[in-house]
Amino acid sequence: MRAMLVALFLSLPILCYASQANSNANPSVDKVLVVKSERALHLMHRGEVVKSYRVSLGKKAGPKEHEGDQRTPEGLYWINWRKQSDNFNLAMHISYPNAKDLKRSEEIGLPPGGMIMLHGTPNDEEYPEWFFNTLDWTEGCIALTNSDMQEVWKTVKDGTLIEIRP
After folding, report:
1. Average pLDDT per run of 10 along the chain, which is 166 residues long?
2. What pLDDT score does 13 carry?
3. Which DSSP state fits 157?
4. Which residue, among 59, 67, 164, has the nearest Cα to 108 in the 3D structure?
5. What is the per-residue pLDDT for 25?
6. Cα–Cα distance between 87 and 15 in angstroms, integer?
7. Secondary element (H or E) of residue 46
8. How many CB atoms lie within 10 A of CB 41?
9. The dihedral of CA 10, 12, 16, 19: what is its sign?
């Protein structure tokens, strides 16, 4: 029994190191950063980029101002729920509008809009998936290829901060 305890005690540093190595290989994502000018979505862990993806944005440039303007919002939001989408594979909801968006909407007298999502690309018989990934085509959402969206879906938890920069 004593020999087993000694062996266990001596193996603890190895077990701790292996556990730490595994957690470093797949760190938890604590922030999603979208940089619109780069057409990039970065998964972040403690300020470091873990993985990056190419994204498509709204059809029009600039920050979202009101419902129907076909622009992707800019600011701080949360990934607050998700669903499987008939049109766009998987979809994660972004908590747009925030307080700043609501204030701007009130000032201009137009509704802010909503249902801004992080989602995959349509299953379209006429256009292949790569076609969608080469241009900005959404109504204001952030789109990834379906395989990239599957990775993000598995990696990003509801409640994760998403920052969308110009």
Report:
1. 44 43 65 98 97 97 95 98 88 97 94 95 80 90 96 97 98
2. 45
3. P
4. 67
5. 53
6. 45
7. none
8. 23
9. positive
Cα-Cα-Cα-Cα dihedral sign, residues 82, 29, 112, 144: negative
Both tokens of 26, joined, read 């797949």
pTM exceeds cut of 0.70: yes
- CA 149 to CA 55: how far, in whole Å? 10
- CA-to-CA separations, 14 to 26, 105, 114, 126, in angstroms, rounded: 19, 57, 50, 55
Alpha-carbon dihedral angle through residues 91, 94, 96, 100, given to the nearest 10 degrees? -160
Helices within the chain (DSSP H only) = 2-25, 99-108, 129-132, 146-155
Distance, in Å, from the CA atom of 115 to the CA atom of 94, rounded to the nearest integer, reads 7
Residue 2 sits at φ, ψ, to 5 deg, of: -65, -40
Confidence at residue 26, expressed as pLDDT on a 0 to 100 scale: 59
Tell me what percent of the chain is helix, strand and coil, each rounded to the nearest 5: 30, 30, 40
**What is the pLDDT, as a whole number, of residue 3?**
47
* Location of structure tokens 């998936």: 129
Identify whether the C-beta of residue 132 lies closer than 8 Å to the C-beta of residue 88.
no
